Amino acid sequence: MATKKEQTHQKILKSMHKTFREHGYNGAGVNGLANEAGVTSGAFYAHFGSKSGAFKEVITEGVSQFDQGLKQYQEKYGETWLEEFIAFYLGEKRRTELNDSCALQSLTPEVVRSDDETKTLFQQELLKAAATMSEQKPNTESTQIDTETWAKLAMIIGGVTLARAVQDPNLADEIANSVQAAMKAK
């Protein structure tokens, strides 16, 4: 059973996932992050040290959640896992509120503007997810990810990002459906 400190940490972390995804790194201050989690700024600093430290943990955990989702689909659907995952990701997951979206499509632009340490953490987690997607054993030091896997990742993440960015729901569906069709053709 988790200690009170661990429970508080998870409560703050869950709140930060939502806040950073919805408002971005610069749109979320420490006081706002703490208030959203129902804790004091002091408690926030005690758990994460800084806003930057909190963001790093959100990025690491967010990309890891994507990786775990891939593994769940692989286990549940076997040989058809990728088709099922793509349908979910471009459909149901795309339509969730931004604060419940995938870290890869909602926070990657924030990582681009971040420091080298955050980019390194993101890269490590992304390589693990890419290895899972390509159905390789995740060893980020020696795994060579094939171009098809990078293209698939870029297509689904970019497809969701573009579909979320347009105002017209029909155009959003067209973008998502086009990405899904292109991936089936491969």
Describe this structure as you would to a colleague.
It is a single chain. 74% of the residues lie in helices and 0% in strands. It is globular. Helix 4 (51-77) packs across helix 5, helix 4 (51-77) packs antiparallel against helix 6 (103-112) and helix 8 runs antiparallel to helix 9. The protein is mainly α and 186 residues long. The protein is built from 9 helices and no strands.
Assembly type of the shown chains? single chain
Low-pLDDT residue intervals, each spanning 5 or more residues: none
Task: Outline the biggest β-sheet.
Answer: none
Give the termini separation.
46 Å
Helical content (DSSP H or I, runs of 4+): over 70%
SSE blueprint:
Elements: H1 4-23, H2 30-37, H3 41-48, H4 51-77, H5 81-90, H6 103-112, H7 116-133, H8 147-165, H9 169-185
Summarize the structure.
With 186 residues, the protein is mainly α. The chain is built from nine helices and no strands.
Q: What distinguishing features does this structure have?
A:
single chain, 186 residues, mainly alpha, 9 helices
